[in-house]
UniProtKB/TrEMBL annotation:
TM regions (residue ranges): none
Gene behind this protein: paaI
Keywords, ordered alphabetically: Hydrolase
EC code(s) of this entry: 3.1.2.-
Classification via Pfam families: 4HBT
Species in which this protein is naturally found: Nitratireductor thuwali
Matching SUPFAM superfamilies: Thioesterase/thiol ester dehydrase-isomerase
UniProt cross-references to InterPro entries, sorted A to Z: Acyl-CoA_thioesterase_PaaI, HotDog_dom_sf, PaaD, PAAI_dom, Thioestr_dom
Name under which the protein is recorded: Acyl-coenzyme A thioesterase PaaI
Domain Thioesterase: 57-129
GO molecular function annotations of the record: hydrolase activity
UniProt-listed NCBIfam families: PaaD, unchar_dom_1
Length: 147
């Protein structure tokens, strides 16, 4: 592969593979990385009993973690190490036991070393569960050697 230029999609896939190999938090959550592309990612999980709170609905922290994971894969899709600078979430509806929650992240803007990403979390019926906005900051390093 030496001397060949990788496409933006190949860079996103290689970056996400390198991250997923070390992402114990997303794996512990029970999440799967379903899709990745330049500035985008889709991560999902099924709400299990250990994800529910005292109201018998999915704990908001787990929904936030799912959205944050999608955000992380989207903003790290350019073979640059990127971390969260600030994130916020608005919960719209509860996730329930057995629901398959999907977090779809999309890039809104990238400028300098910063980025803005929106993540919509929906259930298997397409019902909106939460909206998340993440601000990212690029730091030193790459996910893989590109030459």
């Amino acid at each position: 592969m030496e001397g060949l230029q990788l496409s933006p999609q190949e860079i996103a896939e290689r970056s996400s593979a390198a991250m997923w190999a070390r992402d114990d938090a997303s794996k512990w959550l029970g999440a799967t990385l379903d899709a990745v592309g330049p500035g985008t990612a889709t991560v999902s999980m099924t709400v299990q009993e250990h994800h529910t709170n005292g109201h018998d609905i999915c704990h908001g922290g787990f929904i936030f973690t799912l959205a944050d994971s999608a955000f992380a894969f989207a903003c790290n899709s350019y073979n640059q190490i990127v971390v969260a600078q600030q994130n916020s979430i608005t919960y719209v509806a509860p996730g329930r036991l057995g629901d398959r929650l999907t977090a779809g992240a999309r890039e809104i803007a990238r400028f300098g070393r910063s980025g803005i990403y929106d993540v919509s979390v929906t259930d298997q019926d397409g019902r909106l569960i939460a909206e998340f906005r993440g601000n990212s900051r690029q730091i030193a390093g790459q996910h893989f050697q590109d030459s």
